[in-house]
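Quick one: structure for this chain?
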Amino acid sequence: MTIKHTRRTILKATAATVFTTAFIPNLVWANGPINIGSLTPNTGGGGPFGPTITAAHKSIVDRVNAAGGILGRRVELFQNNSETNPETAIRAARKLVDVNKVKAIIGTFSSSVTLGIMPLCQEANVIQMCTSSSADIPAKDKKGLVFNFQALSPRWGKAIADLALSNGYKNFAIMALNNDFTSSMVNSFVETVTAGGAEIVNKPFYYNGGQASYRAEVAKLIEDDPKAVFIPSYVTDFTAVYKELYRAGYEGKVFTVSIATGSKFKKAIGDAANGILHGLPVPPLESEAYKFYLKLQGLEDTGNMQHPFGTAGMDQISTLLLAMESAGTDDANEAAKHIWKVSNPNGERVWDVLEGIKLLRAGKAINYTGASSEIDFDDEGMIKARHFQLWEIRDGQDVTIERIQS
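Got it. Here's what it folds into:
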């Protein structure tokens, strides 16, 4: 028997409890699906984080579809692996735009991937949502279609520098992976530590990833015997760089970004990793939104950071679908305008997409509050504030040193 659902029965479904959704058999959809592209770094430099972003996108889409979709339509998610590689990502984005006819591409991680697909998305009027940090991202968005759920790299540099200064480090040498992510981060780090009275003992320089050896670069980095070094990079190249640093007998403090020191790094380096200090934007661990994310993904709340990019994945797809519901259309230009509206601080706070849909259909303003951060965008679509945390590796574990907001 086919059951035909009215708007009233669909609204009832959206009122389901937080972790159960109404099962709607043989749902008759009003129109064709709303197509969304998920382009995540499931391998390559972002490989440790991509699968959690992918899973978050899927869990929210499944949750919304089980409760009746949005605008009376099913959401269709097309998942692709960017490989953290701009060439691969551009090919995937072309297929998503031309073949799958997506209204948005969400989940890009590295700045080179986000920037690489941007001309295509701008031309096709496709919304982009990313966790990328290049300062070039807002400058190259000419249509107001790009929304970044990550702090830009100058804020990473400033935050890590502030954390370094507050922990007493005043003498640095710097080298970094040569990409969009690190260049403006290094400039901000230098500006912040020197303003705080620290000394940079070398001329910061950049190296190319994928080299067979980094011995010459490491020798250049430590030739003036700095008390600390800052090496922002990705896990693959940082693993090789750090091995050279350890072989060289360097005894100063090593600072990097946390995306370079995940489980693969710790496994490869072992006890030699002890003492490395690393920083990362972190979710608000005490928030109800973060706890909601953990439960949705079947994770136990340990009090420690989990899934820093998976949380952003939930926030991306939730914000996008709420904006389309608010706009009454999946047209990208109109929906983009409503992304600011559904994160309006004057609205009713929600973190469950279903509760947000229910309130919107009741004519109420909402303030979507994210699991990764407060979802509050500036005029350029960049997230306004993130928490940053500094850890030290001790016996294979990350021990919290300090947390700040930047």
